[in-house]
Amino acid sequence: MNPGLLTQATPLAHAGVEISHLSKSFGDNLVLDDISMTVKPGSVTALIGPSGSGKSTLLRCVNLLETPDEGTITVGSQTIVAGAKVKDRQLLELRRQVGMVFQSFNLFPHYTVLRNVAFPQEKILGRSREEAEERALTLLERVGLKDKAEQHPGRCSGGQQQRIAIVRALALNPRAMLFDEPTSALDPEVGIEVLAVMRELADAGMTMIVVTHEMQFARDVGDHLVVMADGHIIEEGNPAEIMAHPREERTRRFLSAVLER
Amino acid sequence: MGDAITAVLLGLPMTLLVTALAFTIGAIGGIPIMLGLRSQWKPLRLTIRFIVDLIRGIPPIVWLFLIYFGVQIGALRFDSLSAAVVGLGIIASAYLAEIYRGGFATLPRGQAEASAALGLGVRTTFGRILAPQALRTALPSITTYGLSLLKDSSIASTIGVADMVFAANMFARQNPATAGIVPFFIAAAVYLIVSIPIAVFARRLDTRLRKAQ
Any chain A CB within 8 A of the CB of B117? Predict the structure, then answer.
């Protein structure tokens, strides 16, 4: 498939993401401690680290599924300052710009695959039902799932569901995409189908932040690698370089643990 | 026997009316109560929880007596039908709120999160994503409650609502020599005849909805 196919209907430029001095606690537990990070427009950042390192929480702060305690988040031209009251319109605007894909897919089981992809377009972009479903079918076809359109998600395999979830987010023309361990719930051979779609998206110039344990994907597709532990960024830089020559002992231990799995 | 059947059946419309009205009140009234039970704001949640437990902790017949004999607004008092409908409606609201809440509680957290992440508003998320799934899950319990309400509506006869049990009782009293217990057997049969098809229909619907997903 040509790079660009998945996003060619996207008129807006892809947005950068800037995270600055972000902190977040759950009760007494400091999960993110003064995190700053820059994701350039059109680049892919892979976020790795042991579980409990705060990488998922960081990702979820970007679209405010978690509310940060301190710091700022900028997506494109929109800046959210922690502590300041976020208006509903501002929140929806942010989420409209940022697509998210979850580990557990989270498709809507009471809608068909087609409605899963079309319904949010109608509500959010104000598209007509015909227009939304046409766009949905086009995208489903591009990930090889047009024949599943009339099925309910429960009838689809995990890999298919995750590709549908990606398409559901893409149908809204997001300017950046967040992936929260998108292949962790999948068998390895099924995960490959999902990674292929993500790779295409990256080739098309989508800004992506990917929390993952897929080291090969992080190295081949990632422009930037961020290693987190205990709520801190312990190391970041070129993925291949860090994987070959980790500077930090924590990174070394984590990498060898993941690679030996 | 024929007379007894006719007499008891004359009470059927009233039984159905009381049940339908009380269920409707409960189905609608249960929604705000359920929202209160799910509230993030603890004082509200605890207050509603207390009220729900209070409503459910007092037997229906006592509620009906309290409302029928105890409530007076100015010179106005409830007639027996209104008292029964209001009393059973309040109780139904509490039970259905709890059933609705249970339906929502089974939904994975990811459903609301995915909807929010897409940029869907709170109302759309509730009305189009969460509520339909919760209702589907709760459907068997809702039906079960509706059928038990049909039977419980018979306590309305104790405050003078002319339902089936009231009619059976009247017939038995007016024909002490011949009627015996027959009118009550007839009433029992009619309750069964009404409720079994509803139960079967609800089970089929539930199976169909499950298969569809």
Answer: yes
- Are the beta carbons of A100 and B117 separated by less than 8 Å? yes
Q: A124 CB near a chain B CB, below 8 Å?
A: yes
For A172-227, what is each residue's pLDDT tens digit?
999 999 999 999 999 988 899 999 999 999 999 999 999 999 999 999 999 999 99
Tell me the HSE value of B197 on the side-chain side, using a 13 A CA sphere: 4
Contact B119, A120 (CB under 8 A): yes
A232 touches B at CB < 8 Å: no
Instruction: Render pLDDT for B120-160 as a digit per residue (tens, 0 to 9).
Output: 999 999 999 999 999 999 999 999 999 999 999 999 999 99
Measured distance CA(A78)–CA(B170) in Å, rounded: 75
Q: What letters, b where the CB count within 10 A reaches 16 and e where it falls short, cover A130-168?
A: eebbebbbbbbebbebeebbeebbeebebbbbbbbbbbb
Pair A183, A215: CB distance under 8 Å: no
Condensed to tens digits (0 to 9), the pLDDT of residues A94-132 reads 999 999 999 999 999 999 999 999 999 999 999 999 999
ipTM of the predicted structure? 0.90
Taking a C-beta distance cutoff of 8 angstroms, is the pair B133, B210 a contact? no
The answer to whether B48 and B60 are in contact (CB under 8 A) is: no
- Put simply, the chain B residues between 118 and 137 with a CB less than 8 A from any chain A CB are 118-121, 124, 128-129, 132-133, 136
**Distance between CA B36 and CA B55 in Å, rounded?**
15
Q: Which of B106, B111, B118 has the highest number of chain A CBs within 10 A, making it the mutation to test binding with A?
A: B118
Using the Cβ of B73 and the Cβ atoms of chain A, whether some distance falls under 8 Å is answered with no
